[in-house]
Specification:
Distance between the termini: 37 Å
Structural class: mainly beta
Number of strands: 11
Number of helices: 0
Shape: globular
Strand content: over 45%
Largest sheet: 7 strands, mixed
Order of helices and strands: EEEEEEEEEEE
Helix content: under 10%
């Protein structure tokens, strides 16, 4: 399984970015997907998750109302739309596939991880 995340960059506070994660080597539409992030010196934390069908989504409290996770199973791609970005959102963002079809924010249930894309939000 390969996951290729892209879309990161430098943005001013209050701005927006859209991350994409393209998957290959697995039946993408059968599995839940998640986005995670890791800031320098901190542990990797959950950001958002989406079920195989897209009907269920979950968000960390810190991003709720600002970020939106979605997926296009025809394109084997999951997205993370990030609005109203804050400096504390600065991190490397990773996408990952869940072992199951549902959505959850538990890192231990994710088995394949992408290489990460850096998001930097300036104040």
């Amino acid at each position: 399984v390969q996951l290729q995340a892209c879309g990161g960059g430098l943005v001013q506070a209050g701005g927006s970015l859209r991350l994409s994660c393209a998957a290959s080597g697995r039946s993408f539409s059968y599995y839940g997907m998640g986005w995670f992030r890791q800031a320098p010196g901190k542990e990797r934390e959950s950001v958002a998750a989406i079920s195989w069908s897209g009907s269920s989504t979950y968000y960390a409290d810190s991003v709720k109302g600002r970020f939106t996770i979605s997926r296009d199973n025809a394109k084997n791609t999951v997205y993370l739309q990030m609005n109203s970005l804050k400096p504390e959102d600065t991190a490397v963002y990773y996408c990952a596939t869940n072992r199951y079809g549902g959505a959850n924010l538990d890192k231990s249930t994710y088995d394949y991880w992408g290489q990460g894309t850096l998001v930097t939000v300036s104040s």
